[in-house]
Specification:
The complex is a heterotrimer. By secondary structure, chain A is mostly helical. Chain A has helices at about 5-20, 25-45, 45-75, 80-85, 90-120, 130-155, 160-190, 195-225. Chain A has one domain. Chain B has a domain at about 40-190 and about 215-240. Chain B is globular. Classes of the chains: A mainly alpha, B mainly alpha, C alpha/beta. The interface between A and B is medium-sized, with 27 and 28 residues.
């Protein structure tokens, strides 16, 4: 059984769990939506909202990601399944890649929904020449977020205080993604006079980040979840 | 195979031999300590006294003689943490001494970053009128600080020494991955901070000679302080680990005693001194 | 080659030496009953043999592999069923078995056979695990174990939480597995049931292991390691 096959099996299992339980659709998406709404309450002026909309989208993503990651590992620890995976000697890299892939899929859906919410709630428009940049940004940012989230989620799983340890470890680590993704989306949407060509250097950074943490995470996951 | 840490002994993980009952000081640390005090004295003298005020910043430039060395030494400390983490993780013996060095260095590095941020805020208030600005350097420093707070939090998670060491080593090495990425992204994002006035890219050193010397004294003084702190801290950690191990011996003895008068024959239940542990063997007869 | 060979093994939970120097040798085909009060270290002993816990002091091998250095490899050959079932609560029985079987490349036929043996191949197969009774969950977990082709079974109080008929079914399954050559370590308070199953009994007391000649199930089966403290 190659690592990739097992990773696919793990990813499929995670997505199937989500399909059966619908926590993402019933809880996480509404949570993200509500976050977008209360941002408007806090930030009062329409002009302000329009200016910071890309940032708010990624902020809402970050907060929702915490919930997603906790959930991803709660299903593992509920009945000792992660232990069982370790006993089974399943390659930790496969577990990592599989769970990261499933997390990535959910994040991607989340981001698309949040962008749509931004279009509706914050008066954003997506110019024709911004689509390619937008899609590339979403993909590369998501890979980076999924890589970091799965890694630290695995570390924190099962410890008391995991709910606070997870953001403490994750947020500084994904700061580059927050910076880069927001700037790139601003460029794609033409926010505050940015042009599409401004965004590509950021995509480069996001891609490097994703690769660095993808590889680093796959290597680090095994030692981190072990007892 | 026993996993009692062979680096734990009254000689300490760095080989020096503290006098029994006298804490973690040795002749080496005493010398370094004195050198530190002398260097700090020089720093005060030059920083506050002999060096001139800056043309633009006037007296507040004196804060830089502390602010700049502390951040440099902090980076040095984190590099040491990363290297020590790697030595622990990839070394064949997985010697816990490396883990203790990594932890001690990170603790001191984090404290130094905190000092940098506080002094920097004071300097900023005097020079720019604000305590904080979201420019490249400040932002990366703040993120650096939080990153290592996270590292220290991971060190405090439950587990055996080996588990702690393994987790911390991985996180310590991941930090080496995170920091450059953070730097790159933040730098790309901002650049308002006073560009490196000491090592200016145009080649000429834009600080007055005496000011430069004061800065140099600051670097020396804080390096010595770092060294002194790291040596003591690693030794204290070694003693804490030793205490834990002895606690384990006591706990083992207590645990075995739970069995009560079940065992016939000699029972070796005393605490074992540090060093290779061999069987506390019990002759167990039939019930 | 013994299946399990521990010599003065120490394992800790946090700072507590749950296993305080256990010596045990188990030969192939044996079914060893671990008796002892709660807190004695039975679970820790099983988790240690499963390669889940690090060996802090002492030596040990499982299926010839060193516990200090080859925990990963040990894990692949061992089937551990603890207090928790290791199942995904939101998946059905069939989905769980399929997942676990896929991790070792088991065929559909094998997986179906595993489920049939545990009598979870019928309508139960498509029920989410969270909705099953304790006995059904336990059987589902054992089906996953079989699908994974484990060579050493480590069962931590497998009868716990089961009603009488479920316990009977479990015993049958274990007997069948034993008959087909599996080696088992079973920690249990069900001294009669497990006793009739077991070829040998040991007491786990305060983190150490004591042989119990003359106790139910113990016999002169593979008379090895009858005295500890070699």
């Amino acid at each position: 059984m190659s690592t990739m096959r097992i990773a696919r099996v793990v990813a499929a299992k995670d997505l199937r769990i989500e399909w059966n339980s619908r926590v993402f659709v019933n809880q996480v998406l509404p949570f993200a939506g509500v976050t977008m709404v209360i941002f408007a309450f806090a930030l009062d002026a329409d002009s302000v909202l329009q200016r910071v909309a890309p940032g708010l989208v990624w902020l809402a993503t970050m907060f929702s990601m915490l919930v997603l990651v906790q959930r991803a590992f709660a299903v593992e620890t509920a009945d000792g399944a992660l232990d069982a995976l370790r006993v089974a000697g399943v390659d930790p890299r496969a577990i990592y890649l599989g769970k990261a892939a499933a997390l990535g899929v959910q994040l991607l859906v989340l981001e698309v929904v949040l962008l749509a919410a931004a279009v509706v709630l914050y008066g954003q428009t997506i110019p024709a020449d911004g689509w390619v940049l937008l899609v590339t940004t979403l993909t590369s940012a998501t890979c980076g977020l999924a890589a970091v989230g799965t890694l630290y989620g695995g570390l924190a799983a099962g410890f008391t205080g995991r709910e606070t340890l997870l953001p403490l470890l994750t947020f500084p680590a994904v700061a580059p993604v927050l910076i880069g993704a927001t700037r790139a989306v601003e460029a794609a949407l033409g926010t505050a006079g940015a042009v599409v060509s401004d965004g590509w250097p950021w995509v480069g950074l996001l891609a490097v980040f994703a690769v660095a943490f993808g590889v680093g995470g796959a290597l680090a996951f095994g030692p981190l979840i072990d007892e | 195979m026993t996993t009692t840490d062979p680096t734990l002994s009254p000689t300490g993980s760095d080989g020096a031999r503290p006098a029994t009952g006298a804490g973690t000081g040795t002749r080496g640390t005493r010398i370094i300590g004195i050198a530190t005090i002398v260097a700090m004295g020089w720093l005060v003298a030059f920083g506050l006294g002999f060096s001139p005020e800056d043309r633009d910043q006037r007296e507040s430039v004196r804060l830089l003689y502390v602010h700049v060395p502390t951040i440099w030494i902090a980076y040095l400390a984190f590099i040491v943490t990363a290297i020590a983490s790697g030595m622990y993780f990839f070394g064949k013996k997985h010697s816990l001494g490396w883990d203790r060095l990594a932890g001690a260095s990170a603790e001191i590095g984090t404290a130094f970053v905190a000092v940098t941020l506080v002094i920097g805020a004071m300097w900023g208030r005097l020079t720019w009128g604000v305590f904080w600005q979201w420019d490249a350097r400040l932002t990366t420093t703040a993120l650096l600080f939080v990153t290592y707070i996270g590292y220290l939090a991971v060190r405090r998670l439950d587990g055996t020494h080996e588990q702690r060491a393994r987790r911390s080593a991985v996180i310590g090495m991941l930090a080496v991955l995170e920091i450059p990425l953070v730097h790159w992204s933040v730098r790309l994002w901002r650049s308002l901070h006073q560009e490196a006035t000491v090592l200016g890219t145009d080649g000429d050193v834009s600080m007055d000679g005496l000011m430069l010397f004061s800065l140099f004294v600051g670097v020396v003084a804080f390096s010595l302080l770092y060294l002194w702190l790291v040596l003591h801290r690693t030794r204290v950690m070694a003693m804490e680990d030793l205490l834990d191990d002895r606690g384990l011996d006591d706990a083992l003895a207590a645990r075995r005693a739970e069995a009560g008068p079940v065992d016939a024959g000699p029972v070796d239940a005393g605490p074992v001194d540090s060093g290779p542990v061999d069987g506390n063997r019990m002759q167990e007869g039939a019930l | 080659m013994s299946v399990v060979d521990l010599d003065d093994a120490v394992a800790v939970l946090g700072r507590f030496p749950a296993l305080a120097g256990a010596t045990l040798r188990v030969e192939e085909g044996e079914i060893v009953l671990l008796r002892g009060p709660n807190g004695a270290g039975k679970t820790t002993l099983l988790r240690l043999c499963a390669g889940l816990l690090p060996l802090v002091r002492g030596t040990g091998t499982v299926l010839g592999l060193d516990l200090a250095t080859h925990r990963e490899s040990i894990r692949r050959t061992v089937g551990f069923l603890g207090h928790q079932n290791g199942l995904y609560l939101d998946l059905t029985v069939a989905e769980n078995v399929r997942f676990w079987g896929s991790t070792v490349g088991a065929s559909d036929a094998e997986m179906h056979a595993a489920m049939s043996r545990l009598d979870v191949a019928g309508r139960v197969a498509d029920v989410a695990v969270s909705k099953l009774s304790a006995g059904q969950k336990r059987r589902a977990a054992l089906a996953c174990l079989i699908a994974r082709r484990a060579q050493l079974w480590l069962l931590d109080e497998p009868h716990a939480g089961l009603d009488a008929s479920a316990r009977d079914e479990l015993d049958d399954t274990l007997r069948q597995a034993a008959a087909s050559g599996a080696t088992m370590l079973v920690a249990s308070h069900e001294l009669d049931r497990a006793g009739s199953l077991a070829t040998r009994t040991v007491d786990v007391v305060a983190g150490r292991v004591l042989e119990v000649p003359g106790a139910p199930g113990s016999g002169n089966q593979a008379g090895t390691g009858a005295e500890e403290g070699r």
